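$ ./design --mode recover --in tokens.txt
reading tokens...
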């Protein structure tokens, strides 16, 4: 308004020329964008910080749950943070035969992909980053996490890393089709790839888990596989291949993998709740994340790990069949 008042006082004109009007509109748009950026950046930084914090707590809580199930006291809940701080202070060792470019790039790429996934998730500053194709972006970024995990295993030129990477890719081929079908069931039911639209639909109609129980079950089982927990822990079979694709990593590069694990735990638990549990407040959503992690750890304690051939068979028979039933439920 001050711009227009000053202009009218100086010109004395009652009608504005077209070019002056365009300049004023451009100035108003510039100010609007500046205000949005001033609000957006602090909210985004806060969102990332809270994702790191609660992701770390979720991983620590999971360790504590496993310790209780094994009649141990277990480490403190904040132990993952201490582990990462220690890794940052340690020397990073590079295998002599490793492909150094991909060896260094892979953990950074995994961490960056997990970070973007958390930014897309509609929690805390939920509407800050969103698009009409949220679920497609999420599927692509989850693919990047798996691919760079595998690249890390092959880049280290270790037999344990190579086997772990091969198993990661095999597991991905096994569970990804049922996972995509379960997501597509949600898209068919709601009519949108946008997570905000999915939450709004559930606010009006109720949780999607009530309408698509088979899709929700498949999504949860794939969540266990993506978090590498039993009975689907085929890529990091500690009894056989130590740490799988990450066996040769140490120091700051291993810290990137650990922090990516925090973010992936936070993201997968949050995505499951956002897609299938309805529009939840941030406080209730965080509490529900701990419940999801507790259930995952309970299953991890209760079941032995499947062999890779067993996992492949279960994925392409049971999980695929359940996901197709969920899709038919969404259509009809």
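writing sequence...
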């Amino acid at each position: 308004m001050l711009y227009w008042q000053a202009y009218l006082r100086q010109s004395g004109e009652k009608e504005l020329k077209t070019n002056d009007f365009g300049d004023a509109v451009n100035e108003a748009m510039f100010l609007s964008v500046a205000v949005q950026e001033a609000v957006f950046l602090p909210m985004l930084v806060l969102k990332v910080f809270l994702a790191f914090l609660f992701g770390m707590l979720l991983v620590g809580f999971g360790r504590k749950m496993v310790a209780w199930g094994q009649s141990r006291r277990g480490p403190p809940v904040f132990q993952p943070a201490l582990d990462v701080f220690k890794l940052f202070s340690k020397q990073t060792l590079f295998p002599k035969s490793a492909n150094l470019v991909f060896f260094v790039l892979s953990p950074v790429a995994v961490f960056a992909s997990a970070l973007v996934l958390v930014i897309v998730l509609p929690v805390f500053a939920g509407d800050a980053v969103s698009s009409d194709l949220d679920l497609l972006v999420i599927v692509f970024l989850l693919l990047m996490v798996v691919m760079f995990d595998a690249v890390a295993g092959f880049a280290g030129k270790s037999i344990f890393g190579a086997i772990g990477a091969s198993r990661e890719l095999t597991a991905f081929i096994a569970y990804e089709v049922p996972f995509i079908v379960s997501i597509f069931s949600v898209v068919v039911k709601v009519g949108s790839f946008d997570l905000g639209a999915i939450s709004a639909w559930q606010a009006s109609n109720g949780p999607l888990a009530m309408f698509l129980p088979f899709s929700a079950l498949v999504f949860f089982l794939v969540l266990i596989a993506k978090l590498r927990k039993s009975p689907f822990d085929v890529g990091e079979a500690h009894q056989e291949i130590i740490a799988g694709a990450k066996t040769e990593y140490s120091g700051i590069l291993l810290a990137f993998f650990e922090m990516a694990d925090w973010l992936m735990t936070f993201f997968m638990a949050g995505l499951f709740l956002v897609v299938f549990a309805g529009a939840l407040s941030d406080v209730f959503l965080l509490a529900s994340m701990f419940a999801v992690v507790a259930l995952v750890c309970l299953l991890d304690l209760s079941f032995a790990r499947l062999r890779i051939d067993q996992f492949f068979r279960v994925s392409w028979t049971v999980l695929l069949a359940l996901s197709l039933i969920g899709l038919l439920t969404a259509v009809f």
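exit 0
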